[in-house]
Amino acid sequence: MTKTYAALLRGINVSGRRKVPMAELRTLLEGLGHTDVRTYLQSGNAVFTTDSGAGEDELRAALEDAIEERFGFRVDCLVRDGDYLAAVADACPFPAAELEGKQLHAIYYSEAADPERFASIDRETFLPEDFALGDRVLYLYTPEGLGNSKLGEAVSRPSVVKGLVATGRNWNTVVKLVEMTQGN
User: Fold this and answer.
1) What is the residue range of 98's domain?
2) Could you list the residue ranges that cross the membrane (predicted)?
3) 75 and 9 in one domain?
């Protein structure tokens, strides 16, 4: 059965470092046997279909290995199917339709994040910024944008995310990836 996935690469093409050109990423994914490969922006978003029967973890590992072989450095990746991405968007506890894309973010995690990780964060201190946990995702509301967010720094501290691969996308990208994986 053919299934559509998004690959979310962490920390590439930032300040001229760890360059992974999107055309080469598409070629690499095609070389892994995937079809209908498309990329979005330069920040490491790729959508592809596969009928391999492999799960998200197998697809992720194969992509990470291929990137390391091709570019000479390892890149943490998350691979999520289109249904998961749509469910994340649908479950957003914040009024996404009323906000600008830069005000709302989804930070995807490699596995479920225990709420205890965030217990030390005094949420009242950061208001009106706020966050909520979902299924392997943290929704982050930053009315002034992520670049000005103190809460964004707090939820990203190494002590909070230790042992997790985490990669964030603004809400415009979340919506676009849902559209791309749902065939829109």
Assistant:
1) 89-181
2) none
3) yes
- Compute the distance between CA of residue 6 and CA of residue 38 in angstroms, rounded to an integer: 9
Retrieve residue 18's tokens.
């760890």
Q: 120 vs 33, 46, 116, 131, 160, CA distance in Å?
A: 44, 35, 8, 14, 9
Same domain for 131 and 95? yes
* Structural domains of the chain, count: 2
What are 64-105's pLDDT values in tens digits? 999 999 999 999 999 999 999 999 999 999 999 999 999 999
Q: Which amino acid does the sequence have at 91?
A: A
- Domain end (from 32, 53, 84): 84
Distance, CA of 41 to CA of 62 (rounded, Å): 22
Summarize pLDDT for 15-33 with one digit per residue, the tens: 667 888 999 999 999 999 9
